[in-house]
Amino acid sequence: MDSKKIVNMVPKLKISPGLITFGIVIIVIFFTALNSFVIVNAGHRGIVLQLGAVRPVVFTEGLHFKIPFIQDVIPIDVRVQKSQSDQTAASKDLQIVTTTVAVNFHLDPNQANTLYQSVGLSYGERIVDPAIGEAVKAVTAQYTAEELISKRSEVSSKIKETLSSKLATYYMILDEINITEFKFSQEFNNAIEQKQIAEQQALKANLDLQRIEIEAKQKIEQAKAEAESLRLQKQEVTAELVKLREIEAQIKAIEKWDGKLPNVTGGAVPFVDVNNAQ
Description:
Elements: H1 3-9, H2 17-34, E1 37-40, E2 44-50, E3 53-59, E4 62-65, E5 71-77, E6 81-90, E7 96-107, H3 112-118, H4 123-140, H5 145-150, H6 152-168, E8 172-183, H7 186-236, H8 239-256, H9 274-277
Antiparallel strand pairs: 1-4, 2-3, 2-5, 6-7, 7-8
Helix pairs in contact: 4-6
């Protein structure tokens, strides 16, 4: 069968202009409806732009109506965010100090549109990071290197106060700040170590001196006690006591004598052999 005959046998579809117009209207209504509503997710706010200009209204979480093709909604995160960076500063005694600072902050939900209008979405690198560095340098310069270690909580509190004031200017709220570590130069660390060694040696020498002084005082007191004892003994010695002691010694000697005279004697007295004489 000829192909032309087959084409002629197929009925031709006729689309009226009214049907085309209706279809276009349906499509326009469909896309208009889609563009008339916006959903703001949890933890976010919606910045309303009308023909590129920031509107004073801020959309909260949920479903909102907007003027289609006229208004756009920019979502912005208002949850707690973290910024951590390494900062280098100079202490009051001109020691180079390196510290790691971790900051938690969030945007003021009611002023999110003002922040977007003045800063945009790059507020972290434009505002937060420079503010952290400036606050750390300003506060660190008020303390010596040793005070930064011994007064760490006070330093952290002052940095938090300074940084909070700077962020509040741009409608950001500081939640918490953590200074993880202070690092100094190797020369300063060696000097601290030598100082600690010297202090320990001085303390040991002081304790040794105290021990020697105590021992000397003990010896003096002991000598005084012995001298006092001798003095008391001398006061008790009399002529009668000496005579009594001599008599007691003679009595003890007589008690020990076996009745025999000695065969040998010395000195100027001549020796007499009693046995031979008899």
